[in-house]
Amino acid sequence: MTGCDHVRPELxxxxxxxxxxxxxxxxxxxxxTCAECAAEHASLAGLPRLLALAAPMAEAxxxxxxxxxxxxDAIAGERxxxxxxxxxxxxxxVLLPTAAALAVIAVALVIALGGGEExxxxxxxxxxxxxxxxxxxxxxxxxSGDAGIKMQLWVRGLPRDPGIVYEVHCDAPGxxxxxxTFRADSHGRAYVVLNTAxxxxxxxxxxxxxxxxxxxxxxxxxxx
Amino acid sequence: xxxxxxQLIQRVRADETGEAMRALYRTYSGELYGFALNALGExxxxxxxxxxxxxxxxxxxxxxxxxxxxVRTWLYQIARHAIIDMRRRxxxxxxxxxxxxxxxxxxxxxxxxxxxxxGWQVVAALDRLTPExxxxxxxxxxxxxxxxxxxxxxxxxxxxxxxxxxxALRSLRLVLEEMGIR
Lengths: 224, 182
Known about the structure:
The complex is a heterodimer of chains A (224) and B (182). Chain A has 224 residues and is α+β, with helices and mostly antiparallel strands. Chain A folds into two domains: 3-61, Arc Repressor Mutant, subunit A (Orthogonal Bundle), CATH 1.10.10; 86-223, Immunoglobulin-like, CATH 2.60.40. Helix content of chain A is 30%, strand content 30%. In chain A, strands 1, 2, 3, 4, 5, 6, 7, 8 and 9 form a nine-stranded antiparallel beta sheet that branches. In chain A, a hairpin with a 4-residue loop joins strand 8 (205-211) and strand 9 (216-223). Chain B has 182 residues and is mainly α. Chain B folds into two domains: 1-120, Rna Polymerase Sigma Factor, Chain: A (Orthogonal Bundle); 128-182, Arc Repressor Mutant, subunit A (Orthogonal Bundle), CATH 1.10.10. Chain B contains eight helices and no strands. Chain B has helices spanning 5-11, 19-40, 43-59, 71-92, 113-127, 131-142, 147-154, 158-178. Chain B is elongated. Classes of the chains: A alpha+beta (224), B mainly alpha (182). At the A-B interface, helix 2, helix 5 and helix 6 of A face helix 2, helix 3, helix 5, helix 6 and helix 7 of B.
């Protein structure tokens, strides 16, 4: 066995500091005189430094398995909810339209096509008809969004009294969601943009009511 | 083909199933946890950092720019900030006994991002060795046993342990070279 054959297998233990002192001395002596073995040693000599970097990472071990779900739950909690629990936003219907009122409601669902009408990109237009005794007319353009329905509302023919407050309801059998309140100007007109948590398909009628302290009176209605 | 990390990051915001984030978590949580644990010295705090990293990554996924670095580097940078924040909180909450910053890395403590990333790659390289090769390196380097002690413990001739250690290091060097580490 040549010196090299004897020394090569020792290089692993030598590099990792695992040889006996006399063995290490013999290797050192050989490396000083053998370029080939010195090159082999040089190619391994940097490994302890890299292994030292690995040690703390390897010792850490994995995090607790439950952390994965905790992380994903935390992120899910930050995600804006696309389907909010509806009932939170709803309240019991205040007024039921009378049978007579329903009888005179003419429903018109018109896809906005322009032609003199203001356009309604991404929404659809609903004509609001006066409930018995009322003289107002109106239309609404409805657009679905993450927050619910955005409603642009045009009304005319209302009493010329800015003191009167009107409220818009989105109705379904058994419940009603408010889309907000507005007032008419001194010409009895109003243009407002309202929002309601009700989503498309969750309500089947829009109702504009005149509010007073003790009651609400239906003014306009549309059935979808 | 599995999506790349960049694709996963681009997907996390819109992905309501959470699977893109789960894939990223499974790839990087181990090393980020090791990084945080070495910096903070406390498992609970390290787990909080890991949670914070992925939550921030989700929040700021749109700001990730692949031209400025890998997803891995980006996550480590987020982790470094989260560790600094954790230290600040710990300094006003003395009950949280975290490691004091080391002399070598004043102000941060623990390995640098580069050291941690490199360390983790070496861990990954060790995983690719045979169990026998991994074992001799673990016993010799991590446990500091001599060739003779390993021979006794493993009931092997000392010559076998020596040659196995040599081959193990050669294999490790080869794997690291394949990973671009020299």
